[in-house]
Write a structure and sequence with these properties.
By secondary structure, the protein is an alpha+beta fold. The protein folds into two domains: 110 residues, no CATH class; 192 residues, no CATH class. It is 47% helix and 22% strand. It is built from eleven helices and eight strands. The protein has an eight-stranded antiparallel sheet with strand order 1-2-3-4-8-7-5-6. Helix 2 crosses helix 5 and helix 4 runs antiparallel to helix 5.
């Protein structure tokens, strides 16, 4: 392989270790499996830091030599000759190769460090990946919730995780998802052709969007929504609480005004106001099967807060051995649990 030629000794061994760990992390589904990966990392006999100084020196030297030779060849006749282009092409290729060689070790170090910390964080928060088909899952969710009636061109679930929550009064299982959808639109524009005539033409443009959320059995409401972002087919607000702060962000849609008023007691209104400080573009949708889809625009709900790398080995192991907490996920789940406890006394 090319890396066997370009890298040597510790650099080569560390790259092989990181590539192996990356593959194992992607396959790990339990704490025990991840511990095996961490044990392999700890048993590495070499240094956890790459030595790429020589690669960067070679990169700089090649860059300078290519520039000097290219300029010298050009200056002979004050224009680009075939030999000038050969110097630029050959020197550029070698410079690019040396730059990639110098950059790649640090790139794979960052990627594997993040992957290992992310998988550790998921396990710390009782989250495990689910095997799924992206387009099929989007169709299934679309049949259950209005939230997924987005994207006139394509819809796809790009990530699906299963988790569990244990509260003081309620416990439930839930799914976290990443929903990607694309809108197609036709744009018409005018232009002047080569003969000076004004013509029109159309082209298709594609806008990509992402939404994230939690899906779980709710059980205490049906056909009810608190909407902070456009929800397809939701209709007009059924009920407005007394809070101006709430009404600036959300609208409530329910089967009747009485049902909406009964559900949106002051404590729940305040809870949604506080949730809007944590999550953006929130929708709280309960379907006719009493299942909840809590959706939002925040992509960092389950992102590891740790930025440490394997090259900082002691700090990295300390981060793995500690308990990672996804603050936004905790806030979202706590909100759902709180609403459950307050509604339970009503229904």
């Amino acid at each position: 392989m090319l890396q066997n030629v370009l890298y040597y000794k510790n650099n080569k061994a560390l790259i092989l270790l990181l590539k192996n760990i990356k593959q194992q992390v992607s396959l790990s589904r339990s704490r025990q499996e991840l511990d095996v990966v961490i044990s392999e990392l700890k048993s590495f006999p070499g240094s956890y830091q790459f030595n790429t100084r020589v690669y960067w020196i070679i990169f700089t030297a090649l860059l300078l030599v290519t520039a000097v030779l290219g300029y010298w060849d050009w200056s002979q006749r004050q224009h680009f000759q075939q030999s000038t282009w050969i110097i630029i092409a050959a020197g550029g290729a070698l410079t690019l190769l040396s730059g990639i060689t110098a950059y790649y070790p640090h790139h794979i170090m960052s990627k594997v460090s993040h992957a290992l910390l992310q998988r550790d964080g998921l396990l710390d928060n009782n989250l495990t990946p689910v095997t799924f088909n992206g387009k099929a899952a989007a169709r299934q969710f679309q049949q259950r919730f209005s939230e997924f009636h987005r994207g006139n061109y394509s819809r796809e679930i790009q990530e699906l995780l299963k988790g569990s929550y244990q509260g003081d009064e309620y416990s439930f299982e839930y799914h976290y998802y990443h929903f990607h959808y694309v809108d197609e639109r036709i744009v018409t524009e005018t232009y002047t052709d080569g003969n000076g005539r004004v013509r029109t033409r159309t082209r298709r443009e594609y806008d990509h969007y992402d939404r994230y959320g939690l899906i779980l059995p709710f059980g205490l409401l049906r056909n009810f929504a608190v909407i902070g972002f456009s929800l397809p087919g939701a209709g007009k607000a059924t009920y407005k609480p007394a809070s101006n702060r709430f009404n600036k962000v959300f609208k409530v849609v329910a089967a009747s005004e009485i049902e909406a008023a009964k559900a949106m007691k002051p404590t729940i209104v305040v809870a949604f106001e506080e949730l809007s400080n944590v999550l953006s573009k929130v929708n709280f949708e309960v379907n006719d099967a009493a299942d909840l889809c809590l959706s939002f625009a925040d992509k960092d709900l389950i992102a590891t807060p740790n930025k440490v790398k394997i090259s900082e080995f002691d700090a990295f192991i300390e981060a793995l051995e500690g308990e990672q907490e996804f603050q936004k996920l905790k806030a979202a789940l706590s909100h759902v649990h709180y609403v459950m406890t307050k509604l339970d006394s009503n229904f």
